[in-house]
Amino acid sequence: MMNGLFSFLAVVNNLQISLKPEVIFSVGGIQITNAIFYGFFTSIFAAWLMIYLARKSTVKAKKGAVAVYEILVEFMISTMEGTFGTRKKAIKYTPIFASFFFFILITNMLEMLPIVGPGLTSGGFPLFRPFTADYNGTLAMAIIAIVIVQVLSIKAQGVKGHLKHYFTDKPLNPINMFVGLLEIFSELIRILSLSLRLFLNTLVGDILIIVFNNLVIGGGRTPLVVIPIFLFEALVAGIQAYVFTVLSATYLALAISHTQDEDDHEEVALKVEGANT
Fold first, then answer.
1. pLDDT, tens digit, for every residue of 72-108?
2. Environment class of residue 273 by beta-carbon count within 10 Å: exposed (0-12), middle (13-18) or buried (19+)?
3. Euclidean distance between CA atoms 39 and 134, whole angstroms
4. How much is the pLDDT for 171?
5. Which strand (E) or helix (H) includes residue 122?
6. CB-based contact 109:234 (threshold 8 Å)
7. Alpha-carbon torsion 208, 50, 196, 22, what sign?
């Protein structure tokens, strides 16, 4: 057992695991890191794949990748329905939040390819680094998600209605003002929470893959040994994509919750009025 432990530590010490992305080239003075390089190609691939599968999707049941795509889309609609309370709103917001889900899922799944990480280097550095294993990447995604939530909330209920989410109907009340400022501060905490959760889980998974791959290759063991690690990483990729998407959608649902209540009251009133007539 001790020999196995020492062998593991030796492999880890010999590995060059960097917590930050490396600059591989510059364009017009702008530094392009291996994480940005990877994110650029995976975003193009993800967009092409989603458009391709969407065009192949029909009313009749399909097989293969199209069937998986349809199942995931329906799963996202059902998830959004549970978050927003109505299928109408779920269908309205699913294209927006599902984009986060599919991008994170695809980019995390592609990181298990041999060319990602130390498998393909340029100038002594990995040419491709998982985009979500770079905190700049996950921070940018979290900021975009929160900004989208604010924009959609204002679009759904106007600026005045959006501010009510923070300061209620009496913003000049000292208690309401204090609570409102705490709510605004919580938006910044949400950015940190979303970005750190995704970054740390992806980074740890990336390190595990590198370490176990080197243990297998260095020890002359069969590649089948790493299959459980890849299956675990695939599960984590799906969970992280789901968590990021659901949390972002929940933030919007909370922001427009009173709007939903008003819509429900209006719908009930119209039904009662129709019944009386």
1. 989 999 999 999 988 889 999 999 999 999 999 999 8
2. exposed
3. 10
4. 64
5. strand 121-122
6. yes
7. positive
CA distances from 213 to 13, 86, 197, 218 (A): 14, 46, 24, 8
**What's the CA gap between 63 and 24, in Å, rounded?**
41
Series of mean pLDDT values for 10-residue runs along the chain (277 residues): 40 57 84 88 92 80 80 91 90 92 91 77 80 89 93 87 74 73 84 90 76 61 66 85 93 79 44 42
Checking DSSP bridges between strand 30-33 and strand 125-126, what pairing results, if any? unpaired
Hey, is 259 helix, strand or coil? helix
* Residue 43, SS3 per DSSP: helix
95 class by beta-carbon count within 10 Å (0-12 exposed, 13-18 middle, 19+ buried): exposed
Burial class (CB in 10 A: 0-12, 13-18, 19+), 66: middle
* Global confidence as pTM: 0.79
What gap in Å lies between CA 263 and CA 242, rounded to an integer? 28
